[in-house]
Write a structure and sequence with these properties.
The complex is a heterotrimer of chains A (329), B (250) and C (391).
Chain A: E1 4-8, E2 10-11, E3 14-15, H1 17-34, E4 38-44, H2 48-51, E5 62-67, H3 76-90, E6 94-98, H4 101-114, E7 118-122, E8 124-128, E9 131-138, E10 143-149, E11 154-158, E12 173-177, E13 188-195, E14 208-212, H5 222-232, E15 235-239, H6 241-245, E16 266-270, H7 276-282, E17 287-292, H8 299-302, E18 305-308, H9 311-327
Helix pairs in contact in A: 3-4, 5-9
Chain B: E1 2-6, E2 9-11, E3 33-35, H1 37-52, E4 57-64, H2 68-78, E5 82-87, H3 95-106, E6 113-117, H4 128-136, E7 140-150, E8 153-160, E9 163-170, E10 173-177, H5 189-195, E11 200-204, E12 212-218, E13 227-231, H6 236-245
Parallel strand pairs in B: 1-4, 1-6, 4-5, 5-11, 6-10, 7-10
Antiparallel strand pairs in B: 2-3, 7-8, 8-9
Helix pairs in contact in B: 2-5, 3-4
Chain C: H1 14-41, H2 49-55, H3 73-86, H4 88-108, H5 111-122, E1 128-131, E2 147-150, E3 156-166, E4 173-179, E5 189-195, E6 201-205, E7 217-227, H6 240-274, E8 276-277, E9 280-281, H7 286-315, H8 320-344, H9 356-368, H10 373-385
Parallel strand pairs in C: 1-4
Antiparallel strand pairs in C: 2-3, 3-7, 4-5, 6-7, 8-9
Helix pairs in contact in C: 1-3, 3-4, 3-6, 4-5, 4-6, 6-7, 6-8, 6-9, 7-8, 8-9, 8-10
Classes of the chains: A alpha/beta (329), B alpha/beta (250), C alpha+beta (391).
Chain lengths: 329, 250, 391
């Protein structure tokens, strides 16, 4: 029997959805390893322990909650020290993080401190004897690697959205703990976490992404994309490289190439012709819808459903129809 | 300020990749290689700091076979002062192995700042920067999109999913650079000529046993060709119907 | 790169490739996004001059001691190739600045002239133009009417008119070629550095061009332009001097035309792969494949010609006649490639959004200037037969 560690991210005192996914993944891995336990670590401001109680529902046997007033913002050094110490003393077979801005920062540090390697952006995993075998996209998603991790604990960071949080209730005993180092002593301090706009969902977590390209013609027309995203209610806004290069959207919204690789339930491409780099960034989306005036645009080759037409005509109609459809649910 | 920038030579991603005959590597025939974009932005950041702080010195370090010298010389032609090649037959996938080799070189350098790109597009793992920081015991800020350094203290911004983090850190530090920090300069033609005369030291890389091994590479499955639902706004009702009943995403 | 079918990249040194890549990236970022509009508006994109200067593109094959990059001639040729991949007007700008103004100052100027002008021209602070051709003397520059009269105090007074002068209205200095003797002989032709703000000097934009629209082409009038003795390029003498400049410029054109041809070939190839007609990409039709095959074949031959000429020039063993052959061939095949590309693009090919028709129209000027195609034919004819067929 081998136990699995899950690091659960919080932001602004709330458990993030990727944290539920990490626990779900850890549960799956622990079961593959043979009825091991899942221990979930969460850091946050006072009150996070209570919020973390729900992790038991997703398969955590034990929740270790580190509450500290200085942990409203992410503290890389506190998180690294606390996670590494816990993983070392817990003798885990594997430690699971999330491939987010925080997880990408934290997982490699923790792994290095433990003297083991790390694989981020993991799509799936399996146990083969002493090896943890994972799938990981390379070359901006144009190649899929199968990797063998021989070190123990195996440290991996899951790509968001590839594992849906699943109910699998376990004891979920909550234990509070102290940060392994004094947050005040940290040499790196996050002084502020500024949310990017009211209630905006992020690309990593949103089940739906509405992305816009050059076909929108001008920065102000991105409102069409935002309106459609808000009609879905659970959608984030993304953009192509051309659009972020032109300054219509921040670089953090860019999908593909140097930007993000995303796998939402639904991806709506608005006025995107489908440059290979962009396609590589979104092709693992479960359902793809494309709206473009050019019927030969490459985006239609990957889209499940396409509408050929003027985005300025089709998108408002779709926004209205989606709004109607959701009203009746 | 003494600055090191760790750079990687990567293939141009704007191609259809082929898998090599061993099924565990990329067929490099016909690929065009250049400095990783993120690393070029790291070099640019170092050069801007050098221009602001008289007496600064920028060293670029790259691990790999002799072909990486061309990538090092590109950074030298942009304006870096000297290069170090940590010679290895190939660049392993395992980020820890690379971080160990780099930290062996870096720890003797008394650097104030060590810069990396936030990730390389080929291995797409993003581990080397923060792992190196950890091995050196340096403070580290990853994926920065702004940077300010005054009196031995730094501030930076990080783009999160749907938010931004503002970070303070002390020097010496390791930073990894995200898109948006700057636009990398082109090597000027004079810079290209000058780079030939700048020192480029070659040392064997200390390569330890990797804990991650590539078993297999494959191309992602082609998506099944979809269908055009229709033309113009008239096709919207059917699309919504399909999203509800067939794809079940609405 | 689809246009490097013969892996010519492998025949370039690392430094030559680095130079090419820098200029390539510059053109992608600063020229291609604006050049279509510039062409339609009929303006040279002056805003790119500082960037070109910062990267060291002006007079790049001249020595470092004068603030230049000190590149070899192949690297210089690659700069011309990449600039003309953007537009012939942009390449012309750099050709004139480097080969027709900086080069004569370097080759025929005094040390004072060199140290004064060359660094400022390399940095783009001073832009130059080259006045040789006259309204009635194009292919026969020896017949020029412009006269420079030496005054008793050693100063000069120039009278005359020059036409088809690239950069004429932009330039701060003009290299003006004038006869200094009383007879019709071309032996008295000498070069002068004329600041364009000298009283009596006027430049007038030539309107109505249907080619090289993104380029400043002007007419120069010199009416009693008084210049100090130091304006003379002391080592210039006879028609041979301006012809030496033209050899430099023609060398760059032989490379530049390849850049234009590459742009057209790559545009046509990409278009053929994407454009669907009768249910498949037009690249799948034999007629278009023949077009592409012919374009590619001529392009590769031209690339090899330019490269070998560059190697000869670097070895110091090239002849002006070899330059004539390369200019004549490469511009001619580029003109054909541009036209075929435009045709392959169908109706879209006439839009400024695509580059082929712009290159096609530009190349008609390039075909005509710096020695027309026909004049180069006669140069070659004379070279191989020993017989003069010019007159």
């Amino acid at each position: 029997m081998a136990n699995v560690f899950a690091f659960v991210e919080s932001r602004a005192g709330e458990v993030r959805k990727v944290g539920l996914e990490a626990v779900t993944a850890a549960r799956q891995l622990a079961d593959k390893l043979g009825a091991g336990e899942v221990h979930a670590l969460i850091l946050g401001p006072p009150g996070i322990a209570e919020k973390a109680r729900q992790l038991g529902q997703y398969g955590a046997d034990l929740v270790i909650a580190v509450e500290h007033a200085a942990l409203t913002n992410y503290s890389p050094e506190v998180a690294t020290a606390t996670a590494a110490e816990r993983i070392k003393s817990g003798g885990y077979r594997a430690a699971i993080f999330s491939t987010t801005a925080q997880g990408r920062d934290l997982a490699p540090r923790v792994a290095a401190r433990l003297g083991v390697s790390v694989v981020t952006d993991v799509l799936s995993f399996d146990v083969e004897g002493d090896l943890l075998v994972v799938r990981h996209p390379m070359n901006i998603g144009k190649v899929i690697a199968t990797l063998e991790i021989s070190g123990s604990p195996a440290v991996i960071a899951m790509r968001p959205n590839v594992i849906s949080p699943a109910q699998n209730p376990k004891a979920g005993r909550v234990e509070t703990a102290q940060p392994a180092i004094d947050p005040e002593s940290a040499r790196v301090k996050v002084t502020e976490t500024r949310q990017g706009g009211g209630g905006k969902l992020d690309l990593a977590e949103a089940p739906v992404i509405v992305a816009g390209g050059r076909g929108l013609k001008a920065k102000e027309n991105f409102k069409l994309v935002e309106d459609l995203a808000s009609a879905f209610g659970n959608a984030a806004v993304g953009a192509t490289r051309a659009v972020t290069d032109d300054g219509w959207r921040p670089h953090s919204d860019q999908i593909g190439q140097t930007g993000r690789l995303v796998s939402p339930e639904l991806y709506v491409a608005v006025g995107i012709s489908g440059a290979v780099q962009h396609l590589a960034g979104m092709r693992t989306s479960k359902t793809i819808v494309a709206i473009n005036k050019d019927k030969d645009a490459p985006i239609f080759k990957v889209a499940d459903y396409g509408i050929v037409g003027d985005v300025f005509e089709v998108v408002p109609a779709l926004t209205e129809a989606v709004r109607e459809a959701r009203k009746h649910h | 300020m003494k600055i090191a920038v760790c750079i990687k030579r990567v293939p141009d991603m704007d191609v259809r990749f082929k898998i090599g005959s061993d099924n565990a590597s990329i067929d490099e025939t016909g690929l065009k290689f250049d400095i990783n974009d993120f690393d070029a932005w790291a070099v640019e950041a170092a050069l801007q700091l050098k221009e602001k702080n008289a007496g600064s010195d920028v060293t670029v370090i790259s691990l790999g076979p002799d072909v990486v010298q061309e990538t090092i010389r590109k950074a030298l032609s942009m304006g870096a002062d000297k290069g170090v090649q940590l010679k290895a037959d190939r660049v392993p996938f395992d980020g820890l192995t690379i971080a160990k080799a780099l930290s062996e070189e870096l720890k003797a350098g008394a650097y104030d700042l060590i810069l990396f790109g936030k990730m390389s597009p080929d291995s797409s793992n993003g581990a080397v920067g923060p792992m190196t920081a950890e091995l050196l015991g340096f403070p580290c800020v990853t994926a920065i999109s702004s940077l300010e350094i005054t009196n031995g203290k730094g501030t930076a911004k990080r783009e999160l999913e749907g938010a931004q983090e503002f970070v303070e850190f002390s020097l010496p530090a390791v930073l990894t650079v995200d898109e948006g920090l700057n636009a990398a300069r082109y090597p000027s033609l004079k810079g290209i000529m000058a780079a030939k005369k700048k020192p480029l030291e070659v040392k064997p890389a200390q390569i330890s046993n990797p804990q991650v091994r590539v078993r297999k590479l494959e191309l992602p499955p082609e998506r099944k060709a979809g269908r055009i639902v229709g033309e113009g706004a008239a096709a919207v009702p059917e699309l919504v119907q399909l999203l509800q009943t067939e794809a079940k995403v609405l | 790169m689809p246009s490097d079918f013969y892996n010519i990249d492998s025949a370039l040194s690392e430094e030559e490739r680095a130079v090419r890549d820098t200029v390539h990236a510059f053109v992608d970022q600063h020229v291609l996004p604006v050049i279509g509009d510039c062409y339609v508006e009929g303006r040279f994109p002056k805003e790119i001059i500082p960037g070109m200067a910062d990267l060291g593109m002006f007079g790049a094959n001249l020595p470092e001691q004068y603030g230049c990059a000190g590149l070899n001639n192949v690297a210089y040729g690659l700069i011309m190739q990449e600039l003309e991949r953007g537009d012939s007007g942009v390449r012309s700008f750099a050709s004139v600045q480097g080969a027709l103004v900086m080069y004569p100052i370097y080759a025929f100027g005094s040390e004072d002239q060199k140290t004064h002008y060359l660094p400022k021209m390399a940095s783009g602070e001073i832009i130059g133009c080259f006045g040789l051709t006259e309204p009635d003397y194009g292919s026969n520059p020896s017949g020029m009417i412009t006269r420079a009269r030496e005054q008793k105090d050693g100063s000069w007074v120039i009278n005359g008119a020059k036409m088809w002068i690239t950069n004429g209205s932009t330039a701060q200095v003009a290299i003006v070629w004038a006869k200094t003797g009383d007879d019709q002989s071309d032996k008295s032709i000498r070069g002068f550095i004329v600041p364009t703000d000298t009283p009596g000097f006027t430049a007038k934009d030539q309107k109505g061009k249907l080619s090289l629209r993104a380029s400043d082409t002007s007419e120069l009038v010199l009416q009693d332009v008084r210049l100090p003795a130091t304006a003379l390029l002391p080592k210039s003498g006879g028609i041979k001097s301006p012809l030496m400049c033209l050899t430099q410029a023609r060398y760059g054109i032989a490379w530049g035309a390849i850049g234009a041809a590459q742009a057209c070939y790559e545009e046509a190839l990409a278009y053929a792969g994407n454009r669907v007609m009768f249910g498949k990409p037009i690249a799948g039709f034999q007629l278009q494949q023949q077009r592409l095959a012919e374009m590619l074949t001529e392009l590769v031959k031209g690339q090899l010609l330019a490269l070998h000429l560059g190697r000869l020039k670097d070895a110091g063993t090239f002849s002006p006649q070899q330059v004539s052959l390369a200019k004549r061939n490469n511009v001619s095949i580029a003109t054909d490639i541009a036209r075929e590309a435009r045709r392959l693009l169908g109706a879209n090919g006439i839009l400024a959004e695509y580059s082929s028709m712009r290159h096609m129209a530009n190349l008609e000027s390039v075909y005509t200037y710096e020695g027309t195609h026909d004049i180069h034919t006669l140069i070659l004819g004379q070279a191989v037969t020993g017989l003069n067929a010019f007159e």
